[in-house]
Specification:
Elements (H helix, E strand, L loop, with lengths): L8 H9 L4 H7 L5 H5 L2 H27 L4 H7 L25 H13 L6 E7 L3 H20 L11 H17 L2 E2 L5 E8 L8 H6 L16 H10 L2 H7 L12 E2 L3 E4 L2 E9 L10 E2 L2 E2 L5 H13 L3 E6 L7 E15 L8 H14 L3 E9 L1 H8 L6 E10 L17 E6 L12 E15 L2 E9 L4 H6 L5 E2 L2 H5 L3 E11 L10
Parallel strand pairs: 1-2, 1-3, 10-17
Antiparallel strand pairs: 3-4, 3-5, 6-10, 6-11, 7-8, 9-10, 12-15, 12-17, 13-14, 13-16, 14-15
Bound molecules: zinc ion.
The site of zinc ion has 8 residues, from helix 2.
Length: 511
């Protein structure tokens, strides 16, 4: 059943004598069939005992003829091994991970924890995090049987031994998948994490810090320097001789088994894109907070994100857009492209009809904004929104006041200006959050609609990123040339609307 060979017998015996659990024995015999690890512990235990007792009786008969009557029992006792040894002992190599934790009851416990979090998924990837000291114990066990393994088995190196992680997954993931009605695969947006700790043996790793100080550098975010990565690295460097001086081979017995950490689930982000209009001059794009105090109720991103968060049952969101408008600026026309990253969504798939309904919900929630072309996109696609942003053009409409009384003829020359180069020093109003720089921008074209002696509407097509307000009033000479210079009068901007943002992303969705 276990496809163990004659040559495996001394290895099996040596490992059982060291107190190893049956699944660790299979691992070190390089049994690579996943079904073996799924079999009930008791069955495996019985089978392995039967397997080595064949050898023992064989040896005993040989020894009787050569050295007199040495019983099978006497030989076993030499290694303080008894077949009656209770299999409830904690395996000194996996510290119990491949014992009780491979039972269907633990798989059920993990599945129940996942169910409680109410994710919707059709596949999942199982990740396992093991205590770092398990690597030390694995190494110790490997050194203990290395000679026999190299001589007698197909395994040539430590890397041929089946890893605890893999053996654990083989044992439990079928049952977990079955309980959850999902395929357990190597790559899935939904990750179920199982973790173990073993406080009793935490100090196992500590000697490595003296033998390989380079591997253990304190890092800000880590609780302990003894990360699994650091321990594995140190074990690669340490000589066998030095290792055995500091650590017993085989590893010492432990009194307690590992403790399982709470099962956690994490779904990769879902990205939603669309375009929004903003019809209010009292709505910031993002929450407006000054000195920890909120200045205005609501924001574009909150109005859009709230229904998304509840539909996708996400933990949080990141909002981004192609440029942004000031609180008092409206965004009209086709609207401004935006993307929302939904963090850890518990639901990730919505039908086209559901997305349309969601767009409707957003639009009915407020008359200050409106969204269109709402759709699920990939993370990669959202970068298209920012790509070449600087080269894109935007169209604005501004209500201008002039100090000098004007008539239509004063405005005609503006329509003749094409691709006007302007230099803009970072505006005073954004200097607290943007570095000081001088940026060249292009005003592609302008047109006007005369209103009265002191007012007209100015339409502009400009390079994206142009500060329109500063182009009009000059920002104390920080934008040159500006509309005041051009018109030879003091002028100010009373209202501003974004008429279009010329980025053809996300793709339009027909009604
Ligand atoms: Zn074990």
């Amino acid at each position: 059943m276990l496809s163990l060979k004659e040559k495996d017998r001394p290895i099996v015996r040596k490992l059982l004598c060291a107190g190893c659990c049956v699944r660790c024995v299979l691992r070190f015999c390089c049994v690579g069939s996943s079904s073996a690890y799924r079999r009930p512990y008791q069955d495996l235990h019985k089978e392995l005992l039967a397997f080595i007792s064949e050898e023992a009786s064989h040896d005993a008969s040989v020894e009787e003829t050569n050295d007199g009557p040495r019983s099978k029992r006497a030989r076993m006792d030499e290694d303080s091994f008894s077949p009656e040894r209770t299999d409830s002992d904690v395996c000194p190599v996996c510290l119990g991970v491949l014992q009780d934790f491979c039972d269907p009851t633990f798989a059920k416990q993990v599945s129940d924890a996942v169910k409680e979090q109410q994710y919707e998924f059709d596949s999942l990837v199982l990740t396992v995090s093991l205590p770092a000291q398990l690597s030390v114990r694995e190494h110790s066990c490997w050194l203990h049987i290395k000679k026999e393994v190299r001589e007698k088995s197909m395994c040539l190196g430590k890397e041929d031994v089946i890893q605890v992680k893999d053996a654990f997954k083989w044992a439990v993931q079928g049952k977990i998948g079955q309980e959850l009605g999902a395929a357990v695969v190597a790559n899935s947006p939904c990750e179920v994490s199982v973790g173990f700790i073993h406080p009793e043996t935490e100090e196992d790793c500590h000697f490595l810090a003296d033998t390989c100080p380079d591997c253990f550098k304190p890092t800000k975010n880590k609780v302990s320097i003894f990360t699994r990565m650091a321990v594995v690295k140190a074990l690669e460097k340490i000589s066998e001789e030095r290792f055995s001086r500091h650590y017993p081979c085989p590893p010492k017995k432990a009194n307690t088994r590992c403790t399982a950490l709470d099962t956690t689930c994490l779904h990769t982000s879902v990205f939603i894109a669309g375009r929004y209009n903003k019809f209010s001059r009292e709505l910031p794009q993002t929450p407006w907070v000054i000195d920890g105090e909120r200045r205005m109720d609501g924001s574009v991103e909150e109005l859009i994100a709230a229904p998304l968060l509840s539909s996708f049952r996400a933990d949080g969101f990141n909002f981004s857009s192609s440029g942004r408008e000031d609180v008092d600026v409206r965004t009209l026309g086709n609207g401004r492209p935006f993307a929302v990253e939904l963090l850890n969504p518990h639901r990730a798939k919505l039908s086209g009809a559901e997305i349309r309904q969601l767009q409707e919900t957003i639009n009915q929630s407020s008359d200050k904004i409106r969204v269109r072309d709402l759709q699920i996109v990939t993370r990669e696609a959202t970068s298209r929104m920012k790509e070449g942003e600087e080269e894109k053009t935007k169209t604005y409409s501004a209500l201008i006041w002039t100090q000098k009384a004007i008539d239509g003829t004063h405005l005609e020359f503006l329509a003749n200006i094409k691709d006007l180069k302007i230099a803009q020093k970072t505006p005073l109003r954004v200097l607290h959050r943007r570095p000081l720089a001088v940026r060249q921008r292009l005003i592609h074209s302008m047109s006007t609609v005369y209103l009265d002696q002191h007012h007209f509407t100015l339409k502009l097509r400009t390079q994206a990123g142009t500060y329109i307000k500063e182009f009009v009033h000059g920002d104390f000479g920080r934008t040159k040339p500006n509309l005041c210079d051009l018109m030879k009068t003091d002028a100010d901007i009373l209202e501003l609307d974004v008429e279009s943002v010329d980025i053809d992303w996300p793709p339009a969705i027909p009604d």
